[in-house]
Amino acid sequence: MRERRIQSSRGVVYYWKNEMVASNKFAIVFCHGLTADHTLFDKQVDHLKPEYPLITWDYPLHGKSRPYANFSFKNVNEELLAILEQERIEKIVLVGQSAGGYIAQSFIQEHGERVIGFLGIGTTPFGKHYYKSSELFFLKHYSTIARLYPYRYYCKAVAKSITVSDEARESMYRSLVKLGKEGMLNASSAVYGEFLKIEDEVKFNCPVLITYGEYDHTGYVQEYCNRWTEKTGYPLKIISNASHNANYDNYEEFNHLLIQFVQSIE
């Protein structure tokens, strides 16, 4: 994967793209979760890079894409659109893990004509009617609560709570340590602040697949995903032997699901 970047008045955003492959009808774009970075999808890149154009990125306030001014979902959409224009990519399949699913849903709301498929991993839907007020209250005050913990303890606790495999846990721990406490607080406050502004759910004009890990006990993820699929009819797949970072915990099963999903679109 070749590192590239785009720049605006808000900051520099870094992304990674593989060399040209035989099929260039569309690219698969991976959006990592809150306080993670592009390495969350290393196992997908290793498996898929010979076959499909891939883009991973550190979306603003994460990984190398710091500092960044005026974070908003709209501005993040502009950064992703600029990446697609720079790479001359017309259509994409969006894969979003956790809060990366919020980034993906926001992009679909604004630029749905560019998206031919959405796969969510442990993410939850836009639309306030899905959520309990207690959960929204927690998200609003997450940064205040997280600030109270010694950061090394926080990194270990979070990495352990959202993974089941040692390799996935170590990967998430490294991302958190690199981000640093102030980086974590800034990212959490910005992303959750934007999410709390969303009132309406997304109207998808593309195939959708919802997934979560068998052992994902992060917040109410399982409950909200089940409600999402019950309300909309979107297919749901539960990834065995996996927690919140299911695509890393059980990457073999997830990669199989992802390839099936992409092939159904092709």
UniProtKB/TrEMBL annotation:
Domain AB hydrolase-1, chain residue ranges per copy: 27-123
- Look up the signal peptide feature and give its range: none
Answer whether the UniProt record assigns the keyword Hydrolase to this protein.
yes
Q: Does the keyword Nucleotide-binding apply?
A: no
InterPro entries, A to Z: AB_hydrolase_1 (IPR000073), AB_hydrolase_fold (IPR029058), AB_hydrolase_sf (IPR050266)
Q: Which UniProt keywords apply?
A: Hydrolase
Cellular-component GO terms for this entry: membrane
Instruction: Give the superkingdom in one word.
Output: Bacteria
The protein's GO terms of the molecular function aspect are: hydrolase activity
| Family annotation (PANTHER family) | HYDROLASE, PUTATIVE (AFU_ORTHOLOGUE AFUA_2G14860)-RELATED, MONOACYLGLYCEROL LIPASE
Would you tell me the protein name for this molecule?
Hydrolase
Q: Which organism is it from?
A: Robertmurraya siralis
